[in-house]
Amino acid sequence: MIRNWSASAVRAIRGPSAPVTHTLIVLCCLVFLIGPASGLNPSYGSGEELLAAQRAYFRRWGVIPADLFEGSTGAALTPATALFVHGSWVHLLGNMLFLHVFGAMTEARMGRVQFILCYAGCGYLALLGYAAANADSEQSLVGASGAISAVLGAFLFLFPRARVTSLLPFLFFLPVRFPAWVVLPFWAALQWAAAGQATREPGVAYLAHLVGFGLGFCYAWVRFGRATTVKATPAPVPEGENQP
Predict the structure, then answer these.
(1) Using one digit for the tens of pLDDT, what is the confidence trace for 137-193?
(2) Which alpha helices (DSSP H) does the chain contain, by range?
(3) Active-site position among 86, 91, 166, 209
(4) Which of 48, 184, 212, 233 is most buried, by CB atoms within 10 Å?
């Protein structure tokens, strides 16, 4: 009995098996560490030289809406490569936190193949949707935010009653647990409000978040809408203020 209890405790601590989620996190971190944005690779130099290398790097691997619809094969691939490129430590860590919190349970429910199709496909289309809405923009768009937003949308459909710990500023950042059907639509509403106030200047691509969230929800609905309802266990990992 003690052995069975210990095995159950270890499984509870480790959480669901999610090799795709963990692989994506490792890949994003590795790409960031060896790239110029981390500031840790001495081959990119320092000062103005480093800033120039960062700009060239983002233009090479990120999405530039003005170039995307010109028919270039290289430009057509950028919504895929941009999913592994991040602009700063805060950008990377915020995205990886959300992917870790919501990705494991979503992958365990969807299966590895369906999860990676949802992540990559919806992430690509989220960046494509943002580019279509800002077709004349010359700004580089990078980050896994659209794909991770798709994971949030899928999580909402698959685990609407799963309780998520949130930190609310108007409650002095005290952790409060709410069901996913409260937290995630509220997050989407914040993205909608922010997208309406966004400018053409460099910043957060809130529209890509919204497109990814909607696509992820619809993907899970179409693919798993007839499946048996899932009784989800509470999600113990905290969700912070960082938003994908």
Answers:
(1) 889 999 999 999 999 999 999 999 888 766 554 333 445 567 888 888 888 888 888
(2) 2-14, 19-34, 48-61, 65-68, 73-81, 89-110, 112-133, 145-158, 180-197, 206-224
(3) 209
(4) 212
Q: In what order do the strands lie in the sheet with 163-168?
A: 174-179, 163-168, 235-239
Whole-angstrom CA distances from 61 to 11, 88, 104, 119, 130 are 38, 15, 27, 18, 16
Task: Map tokens 């709410």 to a residue.
Answer: 178
Q: Tokens in use for 98?
A: 């959300």
**Rg (Cα) of the chain, in Å, rounded?**
19
| Global pTM value | 0.81
User: How big is the chain, counted in residues?
Assistant: 244
Q: Are 83 and 205 in contact (CB under 8 A)?
A: no
Catalytic residue from among 137, 140, 145, 149 = 145
Which two structure tokens, joined as six digits, stand for 163? 């309780």
Residues 93-123: pLDDT tens digits? 999 999 998 999 999 999 999 999 999 999 9
For the beta carbon of residue 212, count every other beta carbon within 10 angstroms. 33
Q: For residues 81 and 173, what is the distance between their CA atoms, to the nearest angstrom?
A: 35
Whether 209 is a known active-site residue: answer yes
Cα 67 to chain centroid distance, Å, stands at 24
Q: Please say if 145 is a catalytic residue.
A: yes
* Cα 64 from chain centroid (whole Å): 19
